[in-house]
Design goal:
mainly beta
Length: 256
Amino acid sequence: MFLRSRTVPAAALLCAGAFLAGCAGPEPQDRTPAAPGTTTHGDAKTRTDAPLPEPQLARAKEIPAVGAGTRSEIPAGTRQALVVRGDTADANRATAVLYERDPRRGWEPVSAPWPARNALRGWTDDHREGDLRSPVGVFGLTDAGGRLPDPGTRLPYDRGPGFKLSGTGFEGESLAGSFDHVVAVNYNRRPGTTPLDRTRPLGAGKGGGIWIHVDHGGPTQGCISLPRDRMKELLRRLDPALEPVVVMGDSAALGR
């Protein structure tokens, strides 16, 4: 059963010059008093009470090193984004940072950089079943689950034995416990279902079952992995009301 967690006025203009005693020329003939709110410099009259333009608001901050093309894929209502970035297209280690968007200030980090891993062969714009690359793009994060109890997420959380994993990874490391906690990445899946749902809207050939899960000490087959404590932190921070997404890929791809 798929369980849902409960969880100034502008300053006056300054005079452009100063009157210097003993340096003035002959007295001007026109001694008409200046109108209120003006100062007279010779024959010129300057307003001193005119308001200055409103100061420009600082431009809202964007997520660093994310290009316009990638930004355009982030839904307008999204205010939470986990950015997972690899140095190169073939890298299987990455760095993850969680950002939140303030209506006035823009995107700001709300976590420290976390070490992360991705697929053995790196990243791809055209993920295929068994290519051992992680898909590049912006994907929703709507559903979670795991073998262990919910650590306090606001996402729907499905706990069950289907998340038990055994065997060894690409570097001979044990895979046990990798799926103790997971967040499904909405790549080629049906949002609003358990991460175990095997529905593939794009077809089986485009792969699927891409999750964020507990790091097992080596590259993944396509998923993103985080250290156990960071995985729990992510689950507790993700908020469906902020429409969270993951922005994932190598630096060149995300910079487009």
